[in-house]
Amino acid sequence: MARTHGWLSRTAAWVAVSGSLAGLLTACGSDGDAGAAKPTGGGSVAATERFDASPQLLERALGSGQTAGVPRPVLAAVRRAGNQVAPDQLALALRCWKQKTCDTGTGGKLTVALADGFGENVWREVTHMELVLQALTYRQIGKIIYTSAQGDTQKAISDFRSLIAQGVDIITTFPDAGEALLPVARQATRRGIVVVPYIAGLGGTPGKDYLTYVAEDLCRLGKNFAGVLNKELPGGGPVAFLGGTPGNPLSKAWQSCERPALGNGLSVVGSADTSWTREGTLKAVSGLLGRHPDLKGISYEYADGFLGGVRAYTAANKALDLVLTLRTDEVGLFCEWKKINNPNFKIFYSSGGGFDSRIALTAAMMKLSGQSVPATIVVPATMRQVDAATCKSTLPAQAPVSTLVPDGVLTAMYPS
Amino acid sequence: MSQHSRRTGPAPLSLPTARVLAAAGFLPVWLLLAVLVLAAAVLAQGTLSATSLGSQLPLMTFLAIAALGQMLVVMTGGIDLSVPGVMTMVGTVLLGVSGGTDDRVLVGVGGCLALAAAVGLVNGLLVGYAGLNPLVVTLSTGQIVLGVTTSLRSHLANETAVPPLMSSLAGDRVLGASLVFWLGAVLTVLVAVLLGRTTTGRRFQAVGANREAAWIAGIDVRRHTACGYVLAGLLYGVAGLLLAAFIRTPTLEAGAPYLLGPIAAVVIAGASLAGGQASALSTWAAAAALALLTQMLQVFGLPSALQYVVFGCVIAAGMVVSGDRIAAVAGHRTTVRATRAET
User: Fold this and answer.
1) Is residue A142 within 8 Å of residue A104, measured between CB atoms?
2) What local confidence, expressed as pLDDT, does residue A19 receive?
3) Each residue of A115-153: b (16+ CB within 10 Å) or e?
4) Contact assessment for residue B268 and residue B286, using Cβ atoms and an 8 Å cutoff
5) CB-count burial class (<10 Å; 0-12, 13-18, 19+) for B35
6) Is the pLDDT at B336 greater than 70, yes or no?
7) Which residues pair with A147 in a beta bridge?
8) pTM across the whole model
9) Do B295 and A290 touch (CB under 8 A)?
10) Distance of alpha carbon B94 from its chain centroid, rounded?
């Protein structure tokens, strides 16, 4: 018993000394952020944000270099994404990306977590790296934790609870499980943890049940799709919608806005579900071609999935004379487009939003710094047409072209 | 002797009668296929268009080959849930080993088939020799294989495509149909010949029909059961390779649709899940019927919800009128008549 007591005393003393040193290091060895630190309670340390994002980076991410109408957390996130990644930081970023838990070495007090609903594909891995790189721009962040629920709702809930138990300060999440995670998100918020979902919603009341929701305007997306088809197909013709899993709200949201926005002469002759896989898309497009071999346009969410659609056209021995509007921007399809080299095959894409994890983190840091954050951060996006330069053959097929992860980091992540 | 027969059980069927009954058992699936073709020709003509068939025949072939493997397992009274894992694994290993180049295509294909057979061997040993439940064993191995495949995938340097030679062959056409389709047809005939015309095949059928009788007849039941899983693994491997070649860049979801489809095809084809005889040609026909039905429903433009309902109803109806049940009912009546005649 005495030995235990002695051990406890030594441990307590060690923790106290370590904590003091960490605090000293944070205060002394920091950039401007730490100097402007304004503790807001709960051990958080404030960070200063700048909003003069580089037009080139904005163009890469959002399709437009304009800053007007872009929410401030988006500008701040893109501004930080422009920071150079030094060689030692690259090694650290790769280590943090590969490990579930990582010490950033800054001695920062904050622990940040990414609770991913699913993390087992390149797109999600890149999203994870976006968050890691963004976190490394904050000296206040000392630890990064990553969890993947592997598409399992129960595990997603369990991961969330585990993060709450570990006392993290910020949870950013791609909540594939949706509203099933709302109770644990509320629980985290009640414990003082800043929760920010991105891309997929949690339901409930953003701003109250959790800090904010980094979202895209799906109705605007549908209207943008319609705008492209109206312009590219002035003569009208049959078009079709491809969705993801049956009944998913995402597909329904943009499809319900695109349909009425389509111009005269364009008629939606069919819609099919793909389960967001190449194989499912192959079957769906095969079915559509069987009924409507003269299809003029297709709107779909998932660029990588349409590689299956390309195979359906090839198998059916049909030329890809098609206007394709897409929500995401995985590079594999764009390189396939380049190989196909058919001037009548036109692809327009919006943005994959892989960098939304950066925005989620920056919004959380702004909150901890005492700055106001809107209850919903709508990330604007403009439609872009694929050209030869869009294909970056050195990237993995599922890597999004709008990513803010520098090319050098991507190459290190996926060495060829 | 006659009295003894009357007291202890039904009279045995004559060989020709038994053969007719066995053949009749596999008849419904061909009728189903014919009805679907007619329905497609009348109601959904797009289903049978060259455009539609061009992409559907390869998809049907993947299902048919996987179903042939499942059939071999079902004949032994087992079931195999490792199909999606093996098919996905094969695609990923092919990408990794071949590196997307033709130079290593043979190594890639050989390695994939060896791995697929190895998974089948593990299943076979655990079910055939250790006597473990096939449902649990194959579910476990399938999950392990999928886990290892996911790990392998994350170590792939890049998302390379399958070797160009393979994707080119998968896209080739012979006599107006995909080469994949013809390969599947040849494989089906080979399995049919193996089961029906060779001693090994007949022994295998004997094990499936009655394990105890086969054991008494001196057949190594455990070895034949294990062999069933190994051959099935090989067939899943072939299906996975063809699927990968067709898709060019298979993902970790490539094998997912092949968990229940092959089982449905085997059952509709007239096989009993309790084990017993099965027909490779009927299994092929069942796979064709299921693929045709899927395409018809898509051509009709039905919403996914309704497609699921119709698909489920057809499978249920297929089971109700399956050859296995018809053969059982017809066999019972024939036996009763024969018994009455004797008395």
Assistant:
1) yes
2) 45
3) bbbbbebbbbbbbbbbbbbbbbbbbbbbbbbbbbbeeee
4) yes
5) exposed
6) no
7) A115
8) 0.76
9) yes
10) 22
Question: Least CA distance to B155: which residue of chain A?
Answer: A414
Residue in A246, A307, A314 nearest the CB of B171: A314
Cα distances from A137 to residues A49, A324, A347, A356, in angstroms, run 11, 37, 35, 16
pLDDT in tens, A118-149: 887 778 889 999 999 999 999 999 999 999 99
Amino acid at A263: G
Q: Using one digit for the tens of pLDDT, what is the confidence trace for B25-39?
A: 677 888 889 998 998
Taking alpha carbons only, the member of B114, B134, B113, B109 closest to residue B123 is B134
Structure tokens at B190: 């080979």
Tell me if chain A has a CB within 8 Å of the CB of B143.
Answer: no
Would you say A302 and A274 are in contact if contact means Cβ atoms under 8 Å apart? yes
With beta carbons less than 8 A apart as the criterion, state whether B223 and B121 touch: no
- To the nearest whole Å, the CA of B307 is away from the closest chain A CA by 11
Amino acid, single-letter form, for residue B179? L
User: Which residues have a Cβ under 8 Å from the Cβ of A52 and sit 6 or more positions away?
Assistant: A75, A79
**B301 touching chain A per CB within 8 A:** yes
Could you report the average pLDDT of every consecutive run of 10 residues in chain A (416 residues)?
42 45 37 34 63 88 85 94 85 92 92 91 88 94 93 91 95 90 95 94 93 92 95 94 82 92 91 86 88 92 91 89 94 91 95 90 95 93 90 80 88 79
Q: Tell me whether residues A414 and B299 touch, CB distance under 8 A.
A: no
In DSSP terms, A196 is beta-bridged to A172
Cα–Cα distance for residue pair B70/B261, rounded to 1 Å: 10
Q: Would the CB atoms of A290 and B49 count as touching at under 8 Å?
A: yes
The pLDDT, as a whole number, for residue A32 is 33
Nearest CA among A130, A198, A183, A184 for reference residue A355: A130
Q: From the candidates B47, B49, B51, which should be mutated to test the interface with A, based on the most A CB atoms within 10 A?
A: B51
Strands A345-349 and A376-379: unpaired
